[in-house]
Known about the structure:
By secondary structure, this protein is an all-alpha fold. It is 86% helix and 0% strand. It contains 5 helices and no strands. 32% of the residues are buried.
Amino acid sequence: MELLGGMLGVILGAAVALGVLSLRGPLAVVVAILGAVLMVAALLAVLLADDFSRPFGMVYVLLGAVLAGVAALPRLRGAGRAADRWIAVGLGVVVVAGTLLVGLGADAVLGTVLPRDAKARASSELVTGLLVGAVSGVGWMGWRPRRVA
């Protein structure tokens, strides 16, 4: 079961990273704007939290921003204009948020199709697989040769 969760995570994490970072044109701009909205919403949720929760939430928001910057690196490498840089960072935010949401969805699906003990074993490796898949997808987008047109 651990192998099932790990393989599912790798496939889903890589699919999110490759899918989002492959976007071009107007669709990339729309998705990047969605990423900016997600980041602002997360920041507002933390700022409006109680005094006890705010420091913990801020750590997670900052960690998400760092991860989004890392996910944006493949596109930032080729970005010429300032607008292209913002699009790359917005897509990086969507990679992080998309990986989290896909992981939650996959965990819910595993909970409905597997018995409780098997689901727990599969879910334990799902997170690791998502991380490995997303990092592999971002790495592939950064490593692949550029086409010269």
